[in-house]
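Why this split exists: single-chain examples teach little about how molecules sit against one another. For that reason, every record in the complexes split bundles all components of an assembly together and asks for one structure covering all of them. Below is a record exactly as it appears in the raw files.
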Amino acid sequence: MNVIEIKDLVKIYNSSEVQVKAVNGITVNFEEGEFTAVVGPSGSGKTTFLNMLGGLDRPTSGSVKIGGTNVWDLSSRKLIDFRMNNIGFVFQSYNLIPVLTAGENVEFIMHLQGRPKKEREERTKEMLEAMGIGDRIKSRPAKLSGGQQQRVAVARALASKPEFILADEPTANLDSHSTTELLELMSQMNKKYNTTFIFATHDQRVMDKARRIITIEDGKILSDEKFER
Amino acid sequence: MSTYFIIAWRNLWRNSRRTLITSASIFFGVFFAIFMSSLQRGSFENMVDNMVRFYSGYIQIQESDFNQHRSLNNSLQTYQTFQQEIENHPLITQSSQRIESFALAGSDENSFPAMLFGIQPEKEEAISGVSKWLSEGSFIKSGSKDLLIGKVLAKNLKIAVNDSIVLIGQGYHGVSSAGIYRISGILDFPLPDLSKQLIYMDLQNAQEFFSMPGLITSQVIMVEKPEQVAQVIRDLTPKLGAEMKIYAWDELQPELVSLIDGKTASGKVVKLLLFMVIGFGVWATIIMLMHERKRELGVMIAVGFQKTRIMIMIIIESAFIGLIGILIGIGISYPFIWYLFNNPIHVTGEMAETYKSMGFEPILKFGINPDIFLSPAFTILIIFAVLSIYEIWYVARLKTVTALKA
């Protein structure tokens, strides 16, 4: 079953001198439970693609349908709510809220969703334990290592029970050991909760874990391959 | 809502030094504004108190034309029943009757024009404390036929205590007035203009001199607080006779009101400049704060935090900075001002002489009215309300993708 349907997606950046087609007519679908890596060299358009997919950057043309909803038809207010309820984000620089503890960061989106306190607390504990950092629930981000912070970011993304998770270069700032551990945990979460993961990456270790690899170059899909892993 | 408060409060202490410096600038602004306002208010109240005690009283009742044409012909009959009303009014602390006119004062050697005040000595003393200026001799009593005279006038007339002077003037409806009086005491007024022309005599004595028995030119009324003036005027107005008119002190002393208004306006300009400096300082802090957290705000919007919620959170955060400054400012200035209110600063040296020469006590008094403390707090809140427009504008135009790259 398709979770995401993307059709003829185009993004053109107009600078004063030139027009840059960052994404040039991408059509692709994603199914529930996929573990996909969108790969390509720097400037290939993968981050722009992911931003449009996540409702962060408005496309010049084309459509992004998530669970049947064309996200770019939504008002900006409804789009923010849509993101909150349907999309989880993991960023390269972790981007946790520094004044909140690990637990509070994980709880944050559920709080915005208006979930009951008890459910939030149980889910937070479950997610952090699943990510192997249950004992750091009261630690502020500054007291955590990069790998631990990224685990909190994954727990935060998963806690709100999104349709899918978009991870933009999630391992770029991590050492080899942390990367391996994080990918293993994300793979487990993908299998356990059947949550769709879409990565933008050039990290070979992510590609090695992905069951689908979409290669983008010059804003176009160069290849789309699936693997049994 | 509690989450907003938690995030806002913790954000304050992410850079505690900056928060403390910003709050300190607000604190100093509030403190100095309160100090300035308190000193200015205290000085004005002291000035008014001096002037009303010595001259007009807080309230004055006159014949309806007397204020325009200061002639004895525009004098007032005193009614026993009305006097009773004044004495029984709970807000009136003192009252005294006066005759104000002019006469020519002559001695063996000279003659000079004099301002002649017929007073009720005991009551006048309770209001204006004239006896504190007595440099020689003794104060007059009710029924006394003697006079008190300004020191410069006495010097000009070359007379001393127990000497006699002749007064010649025009009495009620043009009657010639003349009399010879003994000098009971000499008053050394700090204001030279008063010292060279003032003569005090007992009211009854003045009524005889001017041939106006039972008449006065004014009835001076004192209240405890200036704020009570309007109430007393409201209460007495219906009981006034047709020929009477009642005035508040500010109607009788428009020059003093203008002086106070002018000084208040200049004080406001100084405070405005002070708060502008603080406002720009706080604005700079808020600009830094917003730019530093641009990415964080982008992440919040990306994960589902509505912009309106971010605006509320940031406004709460800056309101916290303002409130810390305001509360510390008021918290520290209140006991300080309270102490100065109860222990005014006594001015010494040349400054004291200047004060005296202007007819004021050489003392720096402080006011402690609630608006002195609330006004700077309110001004700071307005500054923050204006700055919140910038915050709202900043968040409203924030593009999520650009913010995430910041």
